[in-house]
């Protein structure tokens, strides 16, 4: 357990928020990766590449978020059941057409951005600059992902 920085109570609260972030990120990662496999149509090549760039970026972030939870002294959630209980982001549908896939990913990215904004105050109030910085970095990434997707519509 850490002996410096935020209190144990604050670390636990921040880790709970990060657990939701982890689950949401994993859900959007899985959806994006699945749409990468299943996208079809005249913009296949561009969307296949865009989705790959986004899921690859999210894959690295998943590890950062989980490791931050551990650094706070808590256990990171793992498994589909745990993630399903923490995230409201639904699975993708491989039967959707390309435009519907993009719209679904925009909505999922926006939900994830909402999660990030909702958990930021706990980190700030705890004086947890490391987590606040991580959240800020994730906001930058997901706002860019959402913008790129919206620009593809």
Architecture overview:
Residues 16-151 form the Ferritin/DPS domain. It comes from Phenylobacterium koreense. Pfam families: Ferritin (PF00210). Helices cover 76% and strands 0% of the residues. It is elongated and about 55 Å long. It has helices spanning 8-38, 44-71, 80-86, 98-125, 129-151. The chain has one domain (8-151): Ferritin, core subunit, four-helix bundle (Ferritin), CATH 1.20.1260.10. By secondary structure, it is mainly α.
Largest sheet: none
Instruction: Give average pLDDT, whole number.
Output: 96
Estimated share of beta-strand residues = under 5%
Distance between the termini: 47 Å
CATH architecture: Up-down Bundle
What letter string, H or E per element, gives the SSE order?
A: HHHHH
Structural class: mainly alpha
Q: What is the fold-level CATH name, i.e. the topology?
A: Ferritin
- The CATH superfamily is Ferritin, core subunit, four-helix bundle
Identify the quaternary structure here: single chain
Shape: elongated
Number of domains: 1
Gyration radius, to the nearest Å? 16 Å
Number of helical segments with 4 or more residues: 5
Q: What is the CATH C level class, in words? A: Mainly Alpha
Number of strands: 0
**Uncertain parts:** none
Proportion of residues in helical segments: over 70%
């Amino acid at each position: 357990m850490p002996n410096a920085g935020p209190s144990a109570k604050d670390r636990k609260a921040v880790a709970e928020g990060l657990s939701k972030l982890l689950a949401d990120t994993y859900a959007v990662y899985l959806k994006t990766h699945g749409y990468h496999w299943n996208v079809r149509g005249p913009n296949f090549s561009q969307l296949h590449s865009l989705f790959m760039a986004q899921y690859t970026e999210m894959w690295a972030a998943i590890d950062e978020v989980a490791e931050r939870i551990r650094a706070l002294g808590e256990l990171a959630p793992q498994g589909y059941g745990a993630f399903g209980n923490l995230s409201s982001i639904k699975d993708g549908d491989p039967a959707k057409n390309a435009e519907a896939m993009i719209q679904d990913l925009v909505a999922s990215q926006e939900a994830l951005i909402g999660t990030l904004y909702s958990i930021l105050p706990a980190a700030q109030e705890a004086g947890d600059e490391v987590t606040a910085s991580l959240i800020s970095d994730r906001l930058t990434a997901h706002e860019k992902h959402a913008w790129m997707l919206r620009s593809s519509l």
